[in-house]
């Protein structure tokens, strides 16, 4: 592992340097080996090497007193004053002092009720005065990312397995019903539904993977938001028609943003798609653009649908999070739509917010910075008009 290799190098570097300096210091000082090492015995060269190491570094003397600790070691609560606060580290240091062997471990450090942090630690002897060097690399983020990745892979496998399993069963059923054209037609329809679902999941996964590749939009351009919302509404029309849901466009038609038109259209389309999916028949979905302040524009999508329970509001932007999994599957949802919206807006240096009330409806609002290179749209009174989408 890179972290460990880095630590190994660092330990080698520091122990080599310190060993040389410590021998000279001992010759000068002529002190008994087990005498407590005063602070001044840590040569200044070592201190500057420790200060450039990326890991938390602590040097302790023969009595487990801290002679030197990097600010990271104090910030992580490994050290307070001249004491090492983690019992495992003290125990490792004593073993190292006894047999001179370098030790390596992954340990969890818990302070009070806060969630623990994980460290990859290496403890090594420094010279012959009982000095011990402790290097600790924070692994918490690395472990968190690993856990998210594992979760994601498990979720993806599940999302893909379900429609593939259904397709396999349906094909067997079709085979058995070969003499019944009506049944064949019915099962063929269900096969189309499952394969469409598979295509949606794969398409969303591809979009999400592309979005996670970088921080900001490649080759950004000035984008007319009116074009974005018209295109998004057009793409959702087929889904709205069977439920007789009216799609309306409102607000300003002269606002600009800076970014990727296709990605912004995908984000708005996902919001409209959801608004339709989670609304009863013969309701209304309104897509609106407005100037939020002198630096930001907003696109909002408002529905009169089922709404979202307050407890779920924080989590709906997570990948594969669904308030009601059965309903989401029934409407062809992949559980990735809002995660895509979140990534698209973040990439545009914007954000997305939600207001919702169960039984009344929801409003999702994408907020984007105005393009700095183009002249900001002039402040004019808000046009409250709502036009029916043509
Ligand atoms: P899905 O494909 O399941 O719709 P999303 O990521 O788009 O996945 O949305 C996550 C969840 O948030 C949905 O499963 C649904 O429970 C909830 N949700 C999203 N948009 C709305 C909305 N407009 N009204 C009610 N619930 C919504």
From TrEMBL:
The keyword Membrane does not apply. Keywords: ATP-binding, Kinase, Nucleotide-binding, Phosphoprotein, Transferase, Two-component regulatory system. It is found in: Cell membrane. Its EC number is 2.7.13.3. Its main location: membrane. It comes from the Bacteria. Residues 379-390 have a biased composition (Basic and acidic residues). Residues 367-390 are annotated as: Disordered. GO terms for molecular function: ATP binding. It is an enzyme of class 2 (transferase). Residues 155-372 form the Histidine kinase domain. InterPro entries: BphY/WalK/GraS-like, HATPase_C_sf, HATPase_dom, His_kinase_dom, HisK_dim/P_dom, HisK_dim/P_sf, Sig_transdc_His_kin-like_C. It catalyses: ATP + protein L-histidine = ADP + protein N-phospho-L-histidine. PANTHER family: PHOSPHATE REGULON SENSOR PROTEIN PHOR. This is Sensor-like histidine kinase SenX3.
